[in-house]
Amino acid sequence: xxxxxxxxxxxxxxxxxxxxxxxxxxxxxxxxxxxxxxxxxxxxxxxxxxxxxxxxxxxxxxxxxxxxxxxxxxxxxxxxxxxxxxxxxxxxxxxxxxxxxxxxxxxxxxxxxxxxxxxxxxxxxxxxxxxxxxxxxxxxxxxxxxxxxxxxxxxxxxxxxxxxxxxxxxxxxxxxxxxxxxxxxxxxxxxxxxxxxxxxxxxxxxxxxxxxxxxxxxxxxxxxxxxxxxxxxxxxxxxxxxxxxxxxxxxxxxxxxxxxxxxxxxxxxxxxxxxxxxxxxxxxxxxxxxxxxxxxxxxxxx
Length: 302
Prior knowledge:
Blueprint: E1 3-5, H1 16-28, E2 34-44, E3 50-61, E4 65-71, E5 75-79, E6 84-88, E7 94-96, H2 101-119, E8 130-137, E9 155-157, H3 158-161, H4 164-177, E10 182-188, H5 189-204, E11 216-220, E12 237-238, H6 241-245, E13 250-254, E14 263-270, H7 280-287, E15 290-301
Parallel strand pairs: 1-2, 4-8, 8-9, 10-15, 11-13, 11-14, 12-13, 14-15
Antiparallel strand pairs: 2-3, 3-4, 5-6, 6-7
């Protein structure tokens, strides 16, 4: 049995969905696993204003890593037209869920992992363990549509909750397989952007990668903005987040402005700082935003 923190009986948890998931996690996972319920965190926006957040469960497995879980009870479905999650009531009425559960859990994961990154130092600024997220629907067997960026393995529905040990392992395996970065060297920032353009074309051109421009971002230090290209011909680029979301071009942004966002494929241009080091926290933030494909271009001279 896993250990629940705080040390309470799962039956004491007030929320029925979270209570079901807590019982399943504690009873099915190994004794080496610690399960933190209602994990509170404190974040800050770009202006430095503090805000609170909470993750329903944080699972710490010494053999795998950290898993962040959001729980949504009841019967749910995703509308691929409106791109909204809906709760289906017993009378058939559908109500929009204000907060996307996957966006919720991703935000919690990134906020908590950035805190971990600040507190601990790892070689090459890389986490020595896997971390990922999932959303639990303990009341329904989910067979409906999903957002394009979400793998079915990340949905822990009632059927998967019957064998959470195997289901949780599949989630860890999915995150362990993805976002292994490809490293490319460049002598100058100009050469770095040229190589970034080549990668963007391989991902976005018809007959090549086939990704939409709204799935791709190129991130660089804000101090280099005067040298950013206007596009990656023939692939368009934009610095406007709304235009990017409307598929009007690949996003070109600074590391800090992209905080809290994600893209399916990301190119990160890392430039050296005058002291010979790199801005570790911002580099981690930039690298951690790729869902599936990550290319890191390390520039020798800024």
